[in-house]
Write a structure and sequence with these properties.
Number of helices: 0
Distance between the termini: 35 Å
Helix content: under 10%
Strand content: 15-25%
Radius of gyration: 18 Å
Length: 84
């Protein structure tokens, strides 16, 4: 079962909940009791390794990032994974 993360739009409280995909999303904030929880999009906590995956899935070295950021890794561009 996946872990879904939520954030309250009223007080900013964040909560993570282990739920089935078929479960209804949470609405009530456990901190302020407001009906203001919304789902967050987060990075999955696993990596697929082993034989059977595409050659470009987990490259290392200079071929690791096939779609390099516009700034060349120096930071400052929109959506850059490098800290500003």
């Amino acid at each position: 079962m996946p872990i879904f993360e939520y954030q309250c739009q009223q007080c900013g409280h964040q909560v993570a909940k282990l739920q089935k995909l078929s479960d209804a999303p949470l609405r009530t904030c456990p901190s302020c009791a407001a009906e203001a929880l919304s789902k967050l999009i987060s990075v999955p906590g696993f990596r697929l390794k082993g034989s059977g995956w595409y050659e470009t899935d987990f490259k290392s070295g200079p071929k690791k990032n096939l779609a390099a950021p516009e700034c060349g890794g120096q930071g400052g561009c929109a959506g850059c994974p490098v800290g500003d």
